[in-house]
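tokens incoming
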């Protein structure tokens, strides 16, 4: 935000409008152009911005029902509903989606055309199927996929930490979250959860240090034995 991009752009709605106009003019239909945004303290400003974006030819909007400064506060469903009622393009609602019932509830309150999940779908990739926690079959699919690719340990372990949050006890998580190599993680999955580990893999044996690991929280990490770095996945966008 200090660089003037991301949510900081909300303070410059004219620039957003000009950017979207240029993008829309450069991308022909049927390709879509969308905008994901947080709300402003003054919801009237958010409504006007969304109207301007609709006039620029945006295909749909995704609205996170919190302001830039809000983190764990309840989602402002009234604000999302005001935006839905003010534009004719589809509005995707985002915020506090942790179960399939949350999807239906947010739709009922806002009349949105769809929902977007981030942390909820990280913790349970099968959430939209109505399951309350990640099934082991999903963990197995992730392991199989990663063992056939060049995925870095950081990404591999990061997603497993999220997926197993409701599967493992707190004591078990305190052990699993601090594992630092592919072999350690794969041995744990095999011995504790009966996950099958393919014998021939393309995974790289790199060592990772985590500066902080908390239940259900994001954590910073640094890859030590590789020159390749990759950004953590902080958002996963799925529509239902």
């Amino acid at each position: 935000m200090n660089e003037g991009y991301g949510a900081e752009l909300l303070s410059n709605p004219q620039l957003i409008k000009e950017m979207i106009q240029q993008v829309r003019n450069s991308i022909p239909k049927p390709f879509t152009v969308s905008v994901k945004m947080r709300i402003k303290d003054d919801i009237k400003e958010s409504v006007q911005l969304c109207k301007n974006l609709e006039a620029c030819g945006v295909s749909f909007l995704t609205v996170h029902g919190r302001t830039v400064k809000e983190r764990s506060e309840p989602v402002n469903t009234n604000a999302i509903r005001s935006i839905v009622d003010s534009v004719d393009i589809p509005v995707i609602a985002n915020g506090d989606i942790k179960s399939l019932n949350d999807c239906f509830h947010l739709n009922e309150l806002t009349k949105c055309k769809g929902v977007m999940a981030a942390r909820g779908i990280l913790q349970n990739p099968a959430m939209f199927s109505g399951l309350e926690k990640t099934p082991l079959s999903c963990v197995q699919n992730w392991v199989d996929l990663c063992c056939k690719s060049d995925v870095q340990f950081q990404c591999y372990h990061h997603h497993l930490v999220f997926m197993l949050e409701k599967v493992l006890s707190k004591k078990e998580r305190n052990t699993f979250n601090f594992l630092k190599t592919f072999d350690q993680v794969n041995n744990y999955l095999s011995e504790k959860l009966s996950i099958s580990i393919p014998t021939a893999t393309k995974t790289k044996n790199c060592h990772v240090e985590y500066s902080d690991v908390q239940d259900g929280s994001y954590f910073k990490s640094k890859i030590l034995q590789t020159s390749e770095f990759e950004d953590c996945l902080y958002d996963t966008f799925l529509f239902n």
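note: The chain has a mean pLDDT of 86.
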